[in-house]
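[Discussion] Sanity-checking designs against the backbone

I'm trying to build intuition for which residues belong where. Below is a structure token string of 531 positions. I'd appreciate it if someone posts a full sequence so I can compare it with mine line by line.
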């Protein structure tokens, strides 16, 4: 069967390939014009698979003078009266994607291979010298032989550092030292350089790359470049209108419902204090390609090291929905030794800006969209609640059925089975273990209900106190009160005494008040009662 659809740039990171083979292209070339004409050395941080490589490739072909590739794009009009436009410059392109840097010497070999290609291109025989000296010779020779200043483009510079982080500190330090000597050369070679652009997921604070190249302009949180990568709502509807209609038809929903679902799943990224929502391009294009609202971006790599950092940090992951704060400095820089995981979660794309406190100059962070929210929760659940994968789907399906039907006994029996599968904590006889048990008791409820896609809140404030857990569905409001080593009757009495159900009295849904007792010695639910 011949597919009657346009060519979507799924996995296409080369601008020439994209343009010559008629793939759909979201025009970002106005940003190239502004970068080239109003500055020189830049750094851009964006989450993985957010379009950084394609943007860098676009820069490469611009500086190679490939005017024909830009026909009909914004920059063609912007450059029409510029006598300096479309000249060919020597371009040195370093791409740190697609390689494994977990072995000692892998980074040096990767850089050496790239340098060797440029040495052959410019007739240089200095392969026995240090990497930094070879880099300097290549830049100077390219300048001398072409009479043009050199463009240096570095894609995903931090991949060799991130791969070694938390697993091999010696290798991480070694890779930092390699970069210090190599990219540190750029500062002294400024007179030979036309343009410099670094991309990465993170900006490592106090890493010599940025302390040595202190003239780099960081545009990661810059109002003018919030949509330099990613897709805005206007771009979505302008460039992908046929795909929206097809997806709506395939899923048997209206165009408006389709747009709403796309926004809920893949939109919501913010890269400035106040800016329009940005869609994740990788997920959006995958959704159109498969006509399915799947979790595409998160599935390309489970962030195990991030989950561990979060778990060990003391941050309550129930707060990730939008009440966590980070300073302005935190979002711009990352220090591996920092125990606070929020800067790394933001820079990696698992949290985004939700609000800005002008007085304190601090940001509120939260999940950008449902794809990330439920991806994180599933990753936490796998790390935290071991359930046999062969039984997971039937377990979840039956669990959801019980929640929708108001089957409290069914719900509680499933939690009993979950607690029975949890590993016993190390140091469980220590006083600190009581805090572990009390915290995790509530967290298990929260994670499981959130994974079912339900609206759940914990520690819900009212005039007289805080309800432990409130779960809302179309037909039911579940109000849980938990007691450790006490009775379920005491828990039920507290729900009434504190008036936790008062705000739901008139909304028409059935209210289920559930008192739950947890036995800390046996580490399981000992009883529950329902009113």
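Best answer:
Here's mine. Compare freely.
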């Amino acid at each position: 069967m011949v597919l009657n659809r346009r060519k979507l740039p799924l996995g296409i990171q080369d601008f020439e390939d994209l343009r010559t083979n008629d793939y759909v292209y979201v025009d970002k070339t106005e940003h190239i014009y502004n970068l080239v004409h109003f500055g020189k050395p830049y750094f851009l941080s964006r989450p993985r698979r957010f379009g950084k490589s394609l943007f860098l490739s676009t820069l490469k072909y611009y500086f190679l003078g490939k005017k024909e590739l830009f026909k009909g794009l914004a920059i063609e009009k912007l450059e029409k009266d510029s006598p300096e436009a479309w000249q060919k410059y020597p371009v040195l392109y370093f791409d740190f994607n697609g390689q494994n840097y977990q072995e000692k010497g892998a980074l040096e070999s990767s850089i050496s291979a790239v340098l060797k290609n440029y040495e052959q291109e410019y007739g240089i025989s200095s392969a026995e010298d240090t990497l930094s000296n070879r880099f300097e010779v290549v830049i100077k020779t390219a300048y001398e032989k072409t009479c043009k200043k050199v463009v240096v483009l570095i894609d995903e510079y931090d991949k060799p550092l991130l791969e070694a982080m938390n697993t091999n500190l010696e290798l991480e330090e070694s890779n930092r030292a390699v970069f210090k000597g190599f990219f540190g050369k750029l500062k002294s070679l400024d007179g030979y350089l036309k343009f410099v652009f670094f991309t990465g997921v993170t900006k490592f604070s106090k890493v010599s790359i940025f302390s040595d190249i202190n003239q780099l302009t960081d545009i990661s949180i810059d109002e003018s470049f919030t949509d330099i990568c990613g897709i805005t709502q206007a771009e979505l509807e302008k460039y992908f209108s046929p795909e929206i209609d097809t997806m709506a038809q395939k899923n048997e929903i209206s165009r408006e419902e389709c747009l709403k679902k796309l926004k809920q799943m893949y939109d919501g990224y913010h890269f400035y204090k106040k800016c329009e929502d940005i869609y994740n391009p990788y997920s959006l294009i995958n959704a159109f390609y498969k006509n399915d609202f799947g979790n595409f971006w998160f599935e390309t790599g489970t962030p195990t090291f991030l989950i561990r950092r979060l778990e060990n940090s003391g941050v309550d992951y129930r707060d990730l929905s939008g009440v966590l704060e980070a300073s302005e400095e935190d979002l711009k820089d990352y220090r591996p030794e920092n125990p606070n995981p929020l800067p790394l979660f933001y820079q990696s794309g698992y949290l985004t800006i939700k609000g800005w406190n002008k007085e304190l100059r601090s940001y509120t962070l939260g999940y950008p969209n449902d794809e990330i929210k439920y991806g994180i929760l599933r990753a936490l659940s796998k790390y935290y609640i071991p359930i046999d994968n062969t039984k997971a789907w039937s377990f979840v399906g039956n669990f959801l059925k019980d929640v929708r039907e108001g089957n409290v006994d069914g719900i509680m029996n499933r939690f009993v089975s979950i607690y029975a599968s949890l590993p016993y904590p190390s140091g469980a006889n220590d006083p600190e273990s009581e805090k572990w048990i009390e915290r995790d008791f509530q967290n298990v409820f929260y994670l499981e209900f959130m994974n079912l896609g339900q609206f759940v809140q914990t520690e819900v404030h009212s005039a007289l106190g805080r309800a432990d857990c409130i779960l809302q569905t179309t037909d039911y409001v579940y109000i849980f009160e938990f007691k450790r080593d006490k009775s379920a009757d005491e828990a039920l009495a507290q729900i009434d005494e504190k008036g936790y159900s008062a705000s739901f009295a008139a909304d028409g849904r059935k209210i289920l008040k559930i008192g739950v007792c947890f036995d800390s010695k046996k580490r399981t639910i000992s009883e529950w009662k329902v009113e």
